[in-house]
Amino acid sequence: MKNRIIIATAMTALMGLSACTDPAYLNSGGGYQDPNARAKQGALAGAAIGGLAGAITGGDDRSDKLRGAAIGAALGAGAGAIIGNQLDKQAAELRNSMNNSAIDVTNTGDRLVVTMPQSILFATDSTAVSGALRGDLAALANNLNSYPNSRVQVIGHTDNVGDAGYNQDLSQRRASAVADVLFQNGVSYSRVSTIGRGEDAPIATNLTPEGRSANRRVEIVIIPNN
Questions:
Q1: Phi/psi of residue 155, nearest 5 degrees
Q2: Model confidence over 132-164: pLDDT tens digits?
Q3: Where is this gene product found (predicted)?
Q4: pLDDT category, 41, cuts 50, 70, 90?
């Protein structure tokens, strides 16, 4: 019973942290409230996860479990803070290095998501990366090379206009085309995977032109190695 209480408490804390996440951390004036917000959140999340792991592995005695939870929380907090601080720093450098306001860099707390709309990447039905975007992709590649301890997912998305099978293939080919530019700029093949999601992961309604435009995108997801 006590074990279940410890585990439930840790899981509740972790879910609470996730629920209060604001990817932008913006104040009403559009500025960042706290440049270390993600590091702090990472430390708290790491502590919750570490405490849970420590409680589970701390032995059968109640005092052993409490001691294990405390040790796990401390170790988890340290690891989480390091990752959170790295993501804060990497996100800031990415925003400064890419000269295009249409590119969005979001720090979710455990990864970075760089979103590039199709309108600036590709012509309609094309998989040839726009020459104007190659400089920004080169800047992204340089950033990835500066932070080598991560894996990268390049994910293509479309709207729901046309044949679903065609959209799936197009999204995969576009993801591969973006990844090729990263490879040309020195990013290791072993770090990168390409994924075509087609029309199955919209971020806006497909009932309006604006929504369909938002759904046509490529996301570069940067996930730190734990």
A1: -120, 125
A2: 999 999 999 999 999 999 999 999 999 999 999
A3: Cell outer membrane
A4: low
- SS3 annotation, 69-99: HHHHHHHHHHHHHHHHHHHHHHHHHHHHHCC
* Sequence-distant (≥ 6) Cβ neighbours of residue 144 within 8 angstroms: 150, 152, 182, 187, 191, 222
Q: Of 85, 22, 77, 84, give the one whose Cα is nearest residue 52.
A: 77
Dig out the tokens for 64 from the structure.
Answer: 């052993």
Secondary structure of 161-178 in the HEC alphabet?
CCCHHHHHHHHHHHHHHH
State both tokens at 210. 């604006």
The Cα 160–Cα 6 span in angstroms is 46
User: Quick check: 160 and 208 in contact, CB under 8 A?
Assistant: no
Residue at token pair 């090379």: 145
Verdict on whether the full-model pTM lies above 0.85: no
DSSP label of 189: G
CB atoms within 10 A of CB 30: 7
Q: Phi-psi category of 192—alpha, beta or left, where left has phi over 0 and alpha has psi -120 to 50?
A: beta
For tokens 């998501």, name the residue: 113
